[in-house]
């Protein structure tokens, strides 16, 4: 379902005890042969949210739900960043110029490219502006393949 | 619909004459047969002969829960023991229980009052009642059971808990009416959702009698919406037979208290002075028909007020409003009087907040309110949880005038009780 719409699904897990919850969640996923490709932890005011990019998002979501883990699925835009100085700047400039409000962003470097995952309200607008400005926006399969 | 139209719609003058006649008889009985009352009346300088009008009742001393506890196990019996056919106890959270005895007439009268209540809400002999209260020393289940049988209802004595079995019974026997606690009703709604059962379509429920724990109007509406049924508020206490003391009619605005059986007063809990109708205070009840164990001016500790305006249903027995707290549940935090029900009301009014909560009092008067967020509002953004938390703090602050700490927890974090929910943990070292 997600191949063509250029958004990448992440699992977001509410975690009071961040490391403990991460251990529990990754344990469940490992036991089910699910590969975690990337992880980030956000916290504020004592609350924490663990976000995961996994190779089987829907299966993982169902699995965690069954284990009564407070999980939700969010969609983000994945864009390839040139792995050299100024790479991130160009993307940030493009989003700022087009008044795209970014809630959260995080990146990872894999093999020979760097990927930035951005959480925005209007994913379609973000994607359009990025593509128009010559950036490569990845779909879920591509983001998992790097 | 009426169970006993003559007494339920009796004119006020006749009702008050009946009350006075029964009160005088009760006072004579306790004065002559119960040493506790003789001593109490004597030391207050009052005898049954002094009580000539209903208003004179204010001259009589109160009976408290402590008095009943002290009388354990023999109770404040006014009859010989061979006349007693039933014992119930009221679980004291502290110390000894209270022993409540019933004669055959008392059991029948309790069932009779319950029958009035059930018919008042539209229950008929065609209904099927699943009684999900605890059968045992607690009066809740048995009095309802006997009353429903009197009406000709098919009663399923299910007892509480075991949600799987409750659901099976509901489906197989086409239950139309349930009797349960509010916390179990909320828990059960969640259970049905998990099971993929839509109570509006897949079950046959029409009504619920929710009682044994105080709950707010918001909780009533929530339960009505979750199940697609009518919820009737009820009031009772073991000391006064259990359920069936007062019940809502189909108008659902206040509970008719059966004044031919109970004399009701509202007092200021700190001074003991009688308050006029409409004012909020502690409910005080005197039994007018009890044979085995009459109780005079019993301090129920329940906070309510009397609604004296006539009700559209035609019943002349005055109504009491929803219990807003217990005079001994009242928390005093930083000098402010707070009832747990106030917290509940605020939480229920905020979308995205779950059904469970816990109030923790700690240290030097620190108050923390723990509650659960609904998974539907969790979008992976921590900031949104912080915003929800701040909103709860602000709204609580507006209601209770102090600023508590609020902790939002994921669903399922707080214990759900299938009986009386424990909502307050007091760890203060004051």
C-alpha Rg of chain B, in Å?
Answer: 22 Å
Which parts of chain B are unreliable, with pLDDT below 50 for 5 consecutive residues or more?
none
Biggest beta-sheet profile of chain B: 9 strands, mixed
What pattern of helices and strands is seen along the backbone of chain A? EHEEHEHEEHEH
Low-confidence stretches of chain A: none
Give a structural overview.
The complex is a heterodimer of chains A (146) and B (430). Chain A is 35% helix and 38% strand. Chain A is an alpha+beta fold. In chain A, strands 1, 2, 3, 4, 5, 6 and 7 form a 7-stranded antiparallel beta sheet that branches. The relative contact order of chain A is 0.21. With 430 residues, chain B is an alpha/beta fold. In chain B, the strands form 5 sheets. In chain B, strands 4-3-5-6-7-8-9-14-13 form a 9-stranded mixed beta sheet, with helices on both faces. A 4-stranded antiparallel beta sheet of chain B has the order 10-11-12-15. In chain B, a hairpin with a 2-residue loop joins strand 16 (331-333) and strand 17. Chain B starts with a helix and ends with a strand. In chain B, 44% of the residues are buried. The A-B interface holds A 10, 12, 14, 16, 42-49, 51, 68, 70, 72, 74, 103-104, 119 and B 375, 378-383, 385-386, 389, 407-412.
What is the topology?
The complex is a heterodimer of chains A (146) and B (430).
Chain A: E1 8-15, H1 18-31, E2 36-44, E3 47-54, H2 57-66, E4 71-81, H3 87-97, E5 102-110, E6 113-120, H4 123-132, E7 137-138, H5 140-145
Antiparallel strand pairs in A: 1-3, 1-4, 2-3, 4-6, 4-7, 5-6
Chain B: H1 5-8, H2 12-33, H3 35-43, H4 65-70, E1 84-90, E2 98-103, H5 104-120, E3 128-131, H6 139-151, E4 154-156, H7 163-172, E5 177-180, H8 182-195, H9 199-202, E6 207-210, H10 217-227, E7 230-237, E8 242-248, E9 255-257, E10 262-267, E11 281-287, E12 298-304, E13 306-307, E14 319-320, E15 325-326, E16 331-333, E17 336-338, H11 340-348, E18 353-362, E19 366-373, H12 382-400, E20 405-409, E21 424-426
Parallel strand pairs in B: 3-4, 3-5, 5-6, 6-7, 18-21, 19-20
Antiparallel strand pairs in B: 1-2, 7-8, 8-9, 9-14, 10-11, 11-12, 12-15, 13-14, 16-17, 18-19
Helix pairs in contact in B: 2-3, 5-6, 8-10, 11-12
């Amino acid at each position: 379902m997600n191949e063509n719409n250029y958004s990448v699904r992440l699992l977001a897990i509410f975690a009071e005890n961040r490391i403990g919850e991460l251990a529990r969640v990754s344990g469940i996923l490992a036991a089910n042969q699910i590969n975690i490709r990337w992880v980030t932890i956000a916290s504020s005011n004592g609350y924490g949210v663990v976000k995961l990019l996994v190779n089987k998002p829907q299966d993982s979501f169902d699995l965690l739900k069954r284990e009564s883990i407070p999980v939700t699925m969010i969609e983000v835009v994945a864009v390839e960043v040139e792995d050299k100085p100024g790479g991130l700047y160009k993307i940030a400039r493009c989003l700022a110029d087009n008044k795209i409000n970014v809630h959260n962003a995080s990146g990872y470097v894999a093999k020979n490219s760097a990927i930035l995952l951005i959480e925005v309200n209007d994913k379609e607008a973000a994607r359009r502006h990025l593509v128009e400005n010559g950036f490569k926006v990845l779909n879920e399969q591509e983001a998992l393949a790097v | 619909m009426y169970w006993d139209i003559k007494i339920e719609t009796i004119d006020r003058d006749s009702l008050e004459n009946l009350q006075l006649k029964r009160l005088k008889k009760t006072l004579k009985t306790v004065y002559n047969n119960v040493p506790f009352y003789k001593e109490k009346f004597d030391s207050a300088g009052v005898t049954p002969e002094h009580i000539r009008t209903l208003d004179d009742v204010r001259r009589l001393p109160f009976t408290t829960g402590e008095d009943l506890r002290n009388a354990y196990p023999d109770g404040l019996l006014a009859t010989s023991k061979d006349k007693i056919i039933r014992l119930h106890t009221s679980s004291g959270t502290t110390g000894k229980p209270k022993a409540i005895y019933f004669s055959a007439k008392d059991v029948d009268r309790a069932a009779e009052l319950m029958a009035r209540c059930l018919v008042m809400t539209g229950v008929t002999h065609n209904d099927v009642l699943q009684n999900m209260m605890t059968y045992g020393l607690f009066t809740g289940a048995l009095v309802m059971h006997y009353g429903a049988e009197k009406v000709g209802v098919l009663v399923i004595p299910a007892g509480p808990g075991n949600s799987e079995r409750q659901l099976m019974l509901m489906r197989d026997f086409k239950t139309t009416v349930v009797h349960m606690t509010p916390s179990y009703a909320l828990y059960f709604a969640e259970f049905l959702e998990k099971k993929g059962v839509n109570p509006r379509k897949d079950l046959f429920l029409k009504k619920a009698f929710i009682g044994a724990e105080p709950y707010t109007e918001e909780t009533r509406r929530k339960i009505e919406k979750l199940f697609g049924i009518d919820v009737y508020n009820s009031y009772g206490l073991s000391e006064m037979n259990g359920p069936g003391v007062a019940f809502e009619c189909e108008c659902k605005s206040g509970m008719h208290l059966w004044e031919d059986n109970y004399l009701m007063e509202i007092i200021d809990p700190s001074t003991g002075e009688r308050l006029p109708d409409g004012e909020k205070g502690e409910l005080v009840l005197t039994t007018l028909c009890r044979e085995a164990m009459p109780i005079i001016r019993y301090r129920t500790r329940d906070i309510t007020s009397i609604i004296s305006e006539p009700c559209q249903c035609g019943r002349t027995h005055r109504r009491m409003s929803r219990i807003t707290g217990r005079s001994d549940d009242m928390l005093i935090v930083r000098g402010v009087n707070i009832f747990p029900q106030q917290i509940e009301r605020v939480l229920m009014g905020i979308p995205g907040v779950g059904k469970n909560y816990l109030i923790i009092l700690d240290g030097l008067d620190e108050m923390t309110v723990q509650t659960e967020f609904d998974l539907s509002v969790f979008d992976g953004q921590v900031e949104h949880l912080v915003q929800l938390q701040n909103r709860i703090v602000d709204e609580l602050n507006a209601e209770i005038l102090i600023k508590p700490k609020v902790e939002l927890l994921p669903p399922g974090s707080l214990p759900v009780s299938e009986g009386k929910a424990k909502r307050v943990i007091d760890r203060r070292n004051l």
